[in-house]
Structure formats: structure tokens, C-alpha cells
């Protein structure tokens, strides 16, 4: 991979059995699977099919790419790092719950 090629890597520790796994997703692959409407300052609570703790430097785009790479994901909520949330969290959803305004989060839903 060269520096000129644009890749979005999602590094998420998932617990499969007892072994942690590093998940990497190419941005171009993620976009081809689903297109999302990003919703700043919106929390879509509920319908979590998977909750992934992200690295401190990852943002909503990483969460969106993880959703696009997850079969059955139709929405996501990225929870920002804060005093009460030590690392960002990506909540992968199998349905599109109602979104409510909250500065904690950025959500997205498949178009």
C-alpha cells in the first residue's frame, strides 16, 4: 500500500472466542456496499447488533466503514470519547432506531 492510495483502516478488537481480531476495511469497499447519510449530533439509541471499542484516533468515518463491512448493518452510532467514555465506541445496528439530538454522538443510516 502506497501513501498515495487512500485506504480507511478500521482497527477494532473483537472478541471471537478467546482471540482478539484486528479488522481492516478498505474505504472503497465500504462505500460500494452501502451509502450512508451522516447525522452530526444525533444518537440513534437501540437495535445494537455489535458494540466495538475504537482506537482514540478513530472517528465517525471509521464507524461508518465498520457498519458498511458488517452484514446486516443498516445504521450506526459513533459515541465520542469524553470524560465518561474513555475511548470512542461504534454501535452497529440492524435496524434504524429513531434519532434524537445529542452532542455525544454522530450517527448514520443507510440510504
Task: Describe the protein in words.
With 111 residues, the chain is mainly beta. The chain has helices spanning 27-33, 60-68; strands spanning 13-16, 19-22, 36-44, 48-53, 75-79, 89-93, 99-110. Helix 1 packs across helix 2 (60-68). The protein contains 2 helices and 7 strands. The protein is globular. Mean pLDDT is 77; it is low at 1-32. It has a 5-stranded antiparallel β-sheet with strand order 3-7-5-6-4, with helices on one face. Strands 1-2 form a two-stranded antiparallel ribbon.
Q: What is the secondary structure topology, with strand pairs?
A:
Elements: E1 13-16, E2 19-22, H1 27-33, E3 36-44, E4 48-53, H2 60-68, E5 75-79, E6 89-93, E7 99-110
Antiparallel strand pairs: 1-2, 3-7, 4-6, 5-6, 5-7
Secondary structural class: mainly beta
So what's the overall shape?
A: globular
Main β-sheet, spatial strand arrangement: 3-7-5-6-4
Query: Helix tally?
Result: 2
Helix-residue proportion: 10-25%
Q: Strand-and-helix sequence, N→C?
A: EEHEEHEEE
- How many distinct beta strands? 7
Q: What percentage of the residues does DSSP assign to strands (E)? A: 35-45%
Q: Please describe the biggest sheet, giving its number of strands, its sense, and whether it closes into a barrel.
A: 5 strands, antiparallel
Mean pLDDT: 77
- The radius of gyration is 13 Å
Low-confidence stretches: 1-32
Q: Span from first to last CA?
A: 30 Å
Amino acid at each position: 500500500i502506497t501513501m498515495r492510495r487512500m485506504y480507511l483502516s478500521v482497527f477494532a478488537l473483537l472478541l471471537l472466542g478467546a482471540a482478539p481480531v484486528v479488522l481492516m476495511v478498505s474505504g472503497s469497499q465500504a462505500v460500494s456496499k452501502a451509502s450512508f447519510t451522516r447525522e452530526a449530533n444525533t444518537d440513534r439509541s437501540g437495535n445494537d447488533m455489535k458494540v466495538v471499542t475504537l482506537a482514540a484516533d478513530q472517528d465517525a468515518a471509521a464507524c461508518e466503514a465498520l457498519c458498511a463491512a458488517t452484514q446486516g448493518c443498516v445504521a450506526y452510532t459513533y459515541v465520542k470519547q469524553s470524560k465518561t467514555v474513555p475511548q470512542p465506541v461504534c454501535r452497529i445496528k440492524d435496524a434504524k432506531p429513531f434519532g434524537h439530538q445529542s452532542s455525544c454522538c454522530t450517527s448514520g443510516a443507510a440510504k
